Amino acid sequence: MPFVQIDLLEGRTLDQKRLLVEKVTQAIIESTGAAPENISIIIRDMLKENYAKAGKLASDK
């Protein structure tokens, strides 16, 4: 039973998330043979103020 967590910076549309979960699900099916009903995906939207890279908050860019 594959369980996937995806962290994204805020700003993706609902349509983008739909496409993402469809493609991730298909990749798991093709690579593991898992049935689609056994694949769970959680998308966590992260505020840009809660993510930093190279010492800079994403919200400051």
UniProtKB/TrEMBL annotation:
InterPro entries cross-referenced by the UniProt entry: 4-OT, 4-OT-like_dom, Tautomerase/MIF_sf
Species assigned in the record: Desulfosporosinus hippei DSM 8344
Entry protein name: Tautomerase
Gene Ontology molecular functions: isomerase activity
Pfam family, one: Tautomerase
Ranges of residues in domain 4-oxalocrotonate tautomerase-like: 2-60
Entry keyword Nucleus: no
PANTHER family documented for this protein: 2-HYDROXYMUCONATE TAUTOMERASE (PTHR35530:SF1), TAUTOMERASE-RELATED (PTHR35530)
E.C. code: 5.3.2.-
TM region(s), chain numbering: none
Root EC class: isomerase
Coiled-coil positions: none
Record carries keyword Isomerase: yes
UniProtKB keywords: Isomerase
Active site per UniProt: 2 (proton acceptor)
Family: Belongs to the 4-oxalocrotonate tautomerase family.
